[in-house]
Design goal:
It is a single chain. By secondary structure, the protein is an alpha/beta fold. It has four domains: 171 residues, Beta-Lactamase; 60 residues; 151 residues, Reverse transcriptase/Diguanylate cyclase domain (Alpha-Beta Plaits); 236 residues, Alpha-Beta Barrel (TIM Barrel), CATH 3.20.20. Helix content is 54%, strand content 18%. The chain is built from 21 helices and 19 strands. The strands form three sheets. Strands 10-11-13-14-15-16-17-18 form an eight-stranded mixed beta barrel, surrounded by four helices. Strand 1 and strand 2 form a beta hairpin. This is Diguanylate cyclase. One of its GO terms (cellular component) is membrane. Keywords: Membrane, Transmembrane, Transmembrane helix. GO terms for molecular function: cyclic-guanylate-specific phosphodiesterase activity. It comes from Marinobacterium aestuarii.
Length: 648
């Protein structure tokens, strides 16, 4: 029972006790008054009969006495009347049983004993005593009056009690309303949501409780923010270049390996290797400050290229080297990107030199083309060879030519991919996610299509075409339909996780279709929806609504590739996913690198503090698994547990 209801009940009980005592006192007073009335009435009757019957009693005229008493007795107000002569003989006596009648319930008569008083009056005639008259009133009148008063009092009490209860309930609810806010704060705090009450009550005790609760919420929120800031600073030190803010060499190589060697979903690509020639001489010519400004400006020019380039990997490989991985553009577009970059850095260099004579910046670019089969190390090696060739020939740009370099996608492949997606001619592969107790939590599914030779092709071979054709939403619809069909056909099977694209979750129509589709599925509790961390941060408000709707439907929700986005992970507090998957680029050297271990341990700690499970991607070695278990990871996924296989 709530505190308000308990207070109302206690107040009502106190009121009932008070009312009961009041009713008892009033009833007892009424009882004494009625008894006095009966006594007075009996005495008056005896007096009047004595005056009237005195001569008849003296003459012992029993007939007249009987006639007179019968006339009075028939009124019903008397229970017994006796007339006794002076010698003590009974001249006449009449009595009736004290039957109350049907107007008063018997239980009330039994509950309230009421004995009418009997009054005696001596009768004198001619100054001599002639007899005695005994009169006892009938209790029926008293009981009727008493019962009527009790009914009226009870009805009035019930009406006033109901009215008082409603008034007290309203007043108590208004007074104790801040306690409901404190309850909501406590519940929200268990969900790692930090809300404060804006309205402070005027009641001193309640004001202290609300202020103390608000203070506690602020302190807990501040602790979480400080923890997030500390981890952000740790990430900046471990994975960010201090001068440019770009990923540092180890983070850049890890991300390249993650995309090209592990996921193999980047597809045909172009790697731009940007080199500042003879950085030491440039530093002496311009000075350290201007040289640093030139490096910052170069990093900004690269960031500007990435703004509209879609999927990419960018970072600083050394003091003089930068790299940028892009989806393979058309040759003329690639040329425009390179020429625009060189033109912009030349202008910046001219301003730093403060010279009117136009001078090209000592920057050259090596280009290497590749795909998911090329591999990150090979692609970087080819780009470095292109740089060396450019320096040897005193050229600013050189593209490495290798046998099998990817060519722009032809129209027939576009048509083939388009037909496969529109007809939902896809099949699913799956890779298990294994918990620390070696139980399979779910399988993450990957979409695949057949090439023109009816052989499965990697995601990188067709995803870029799907995105170029604007069919990502259609492909995600097909994946959802295939996965739901699989779950319906196997009611007791393993749960599936679907990773949706940014294009789909940013589309309100797709989100509505997905929720309507899931609402008709009996097995929706075995479905997990995953989103890339970038997709979450690009549309946090819309994703938050989707996450709440999925929670209502009973579907699990996870964030994929967690921990690499530069915007941090403060969004976890609002989004509250069921689990996160730490990006594989952070785990490649987890078994050897102390910085990686400490950073991943911090990410796991943050997730657990919010009651969010932490999973690890790209686990390939037993030593990685051992270290992750020591860091209290909840589950792992990777080639150690098996490569993706066809979902049967």
């Amino acid at each position: 029972m709530s505190l308000v209801n308990q207070l109302i009940a206690a107040t009502l009980v106190a009121m009932m006790g008070l009312a009961g005592g009041t009713i008892y006192i009033a009833s007892d007073s009424s009882k004494r008054m009625l008894t006095n009335q009966l006594e007075s009435h009996a005495l008056d009757t005896a007096t009047h009969l004595g005056l009237y019957l005195a001569p008849y009693i003296a003459n012992k005229d029993a007939a007249t006495v009987e006639t007179t008493i019968n006339a009075i007795f028939d009124s019903g107000f008397y229970q017994r009347i006796d007339v006794v002569t002076a010698e003590g003989d009974m001249l006449f006596s009449k009595s009736t049983a004290p039957v109350i009648g049907n107007t008063v319930p018997q239980w009330f008569v039994d509950l309230v004993p009421l004995t009418p008083p009997a009054m005696t009056r001596e009768v004198t005639y001619n100054w001599a005593k002639t007899g005695t008259i005994f009169v006892q009133g009938h209790p029926g009148y008293a009981y009727q009056a008493y019962w009527r008063v009790a009914q009226e009092t009870l009805v009035l009490f019930l009406f006033l009690a109901l009215l008082s209860t409603l008034a007290i309930s309203l007043v108590l609810r208004i007074i104790l309303r801040p306690l409901k806010g404190v309850e909501d704060q406590a519940i929200a705090l268990t969900r790692k949501q930090y809300i404060e009450q804006p309205r402070i009550p005027k009641t001193r005790e309640l004001r202290r409780v609300v202020e103390a609760m608000n203070q506690m919420v602020r302190q807990v929120h501040q602790m979480f923010e400080e923890q997030s800031q500390n981890i952000e600073e740790l990430r900046r030190q471990a994975y960010r270049d201090d001068l440019t803010g770009l990923p540092n060499p180890r983070a850049t190589r890890a991300q390249l390996g993650e995309r090209l060697d592990y996921r193999q979903d980047f597809g045909p690509c172009a790697l731009l290797y940007v080199h500042i020639d003879n950085l030491q001489a440039l530093n002496q010519a311009l000075g350290a400050e201007k040289t640093d400004n030139l490096i910052r400006l170069l990093s900004k020019q690269l960031s500007d290229i990435c703004t509209g380039a879609g999927d990419h990997v960018m970072g600083r490989l050394s003091g003089a080297d930068f790299t940028l991985l892009l989806k393979l553009p058309a040759p003329d577009q690639l040329q425009r990107i390179v020429n625009g970059l060189l033109s912009s850095i030349d202008q910046d260099y001219q301003q730093l030199r403060q010279s009117e004579a136009p001078t090209a910046a000592p920057v050259c670019i090596g280009i290497a083309l590749g795909n998911d089969q090329t591999g990150a190390a090979q692609l970087q090696s080819n780009a470095r060879l292109a740089i060396e060739k450019a320096l040897q020939e005193s050229r600013r740009v050189h593209q490495f030519q290798a046998p099998g370099d990817p060519q722009p996608v032809d129209e027939s492949w576009h048509a083939h991919v388009s037909a496969a997606i529109e007809n939902e001619q896809i099949f699913l592969q799956a890779q298990p996610v294994i918990s620390t107790d070696e139980q399979q939590l779910h399988q993450e599914v990957f979409a695949r299509i057949l090439n023109r030779d009816n052989s499965p092709c990697s995601a990188g071979d067709f995803i870029s075409v799907v995105r170029e054709l604007g069919l990502m939403t259609d492909m995600d619809r097909a994946v959802v339909n295939h996965a739901l069909q699989y779950l319906q056909q196997r009611p007791s099977g393993t749960a599936l996780a679907i990773n949706l694209s940014n294009e789909s979750v940013s589309n309100p129509g797709f989100r509505q279709w997905l929720l309507e589709r899931l609402s008709t599925l009996n097995e929706r509790a075995r479905l997990c929806i995953e989103l890339n961390e970038s997709s979450v941060l690009n549309n946090l408000e819309g994703i938050e609504g989707l996450r709440n709707a999925l929670r209502t439907l009973g579907c699990r929700f996870g964030v994929d590739n967690f921990g690499v986005h530069p915007s941090g992970f403060g969004y976890l507090y609002k989004l509250q996913p069921d689990y996160i998957k730490i990006d594989g680029s952070l785990l490649h050297d987890i078994d050897n690198d102390a910085q990686d271990q400490f950073f991943v341990s911090s990410l796991v700690s943050v997730a657990h503090s919010l009651d969010i499970a932490a999973y690890a991607e790209r686990v390939e070695r037993s030593s990685q698994l051992t270290q992750l278990l020591r860091l209290k990871i909840d589950a792992t996924q990777g080639f150690l547990h098996g490569t993706p296989k066809a979902l049967e």
